[in-house]
Amino acid sequence: MAETEYTARGVxxxxxxxxxxxxxxxxxKDGRLELLTSYGTQIDSAPVRQVRAGRPWFGRGDRALASVxxxxxxxxxxxxRGGGRESGTKAVGRFLEAVRAARGRxxxxxxxx
Length: 113
Description:
15% of the residues lie in helices and 46% in strands. The chain is of the alpha+beta class.
């Protein structure tokens, strides 16, 4: 089993105005993106090549949009890293870079923004 390429914890995952979890997890591992609840239950998963990700055109800088299996998700990334917190803008940047890297080591671009 390969090592996890990207992990974010404490992520609010929603479908526009409906919140699915306030402390979820996002994993990119073995070429798949997984959205998990705080209990580890899978919300959605897809091969990273089929995931569209980007920043919203408006709104706060700590949010990213992700289209997984045709469903739109809003990810609010607070950015737990190590023992401290990372700014939301940096956390979103790291997430988008991880998606790009997993799609083909920089060949793909974010599709939303």
